Amino acid sequence: MSTVMHLAPGRRFEVVALAAATISLLPLDAVRASVYATPPAFKGAWVGMSVDAWRDLRLPPGVGDLARPACRSLAATGDRHGDTENARRTGADLTCFYSDPHGLDRSVRLDNGFRASQVRYAFVGGVLSEIRYQTSIDAYNDLTALYGRRYGKPVIETRDTVRTTFGVRPRVRQVWRTEFGSVELVDPASDPTKIRIRISNRNATTG
């Protein structure tokens, strides 16, 4: 469908409306609000999803074709995987991850050759409430750019120092918030070569 608009004698402006691809121009604040209303996520997993929905996800990049989702009760001791099936039936809290056939953790590939290690998905009351992982401190610029695109400027940014095995190092903590939770970055983590990320359904505080 075409609409002809006469702007001046002898000139016209034609607007083509495509039924299959209508473009809506929204105020910038509305666009940002729609983005910030998205639950925080990591490689397809998002806070608020169920245990079964997480298990049904496509394997995240880089874990390997033989990797499988595994869970254990947060209250389990001894056996690494705990009484998983009983925990699911009773609604007990779970921590989940991806493992190889030998039960070893699998890392997840990030952008630009970096990898996320010690990836953990914490379920409380059957709902994914937190995703945690670590990665190289060299990924700092990539991560801050990623979360900046998703959630805008950090609402919290604190700087101090921390004593590590490599001596005293400067440390930065940044928090991005959405309507459904927060993303926290700490550089460095307890391991001075790693960044710690926590994606949560809770609003991180200054503490």
3D architecture notes:
This protein has 4 helices and 13 strands. Strands 5, 6, 7, 8, 9, 10, 11, 12 and 13 form a 9-stranded antiparallel sheet that branches. Strands 1-2 form a two-stranded antiparallel ribbon. 16% of the residues lie in helices and 42% in strands. A hairpin with a 5-residue loop joins strand 7 (108-109) and strand 8. Residues 1-35 and 77-90 have low confidence and may be disordered. It has helices spanning 28-36, 51-55, 84-90, 140-151, and strands at residues 2-8, 11-16, 41-42, 45-46, 68-73, 94-99, 108-109, 115-124, 127-136, 156-164, 167-178, 181-187, 194-200. By secondary structure, it is of the alpha+beta class. The chain has one domain (28-200).
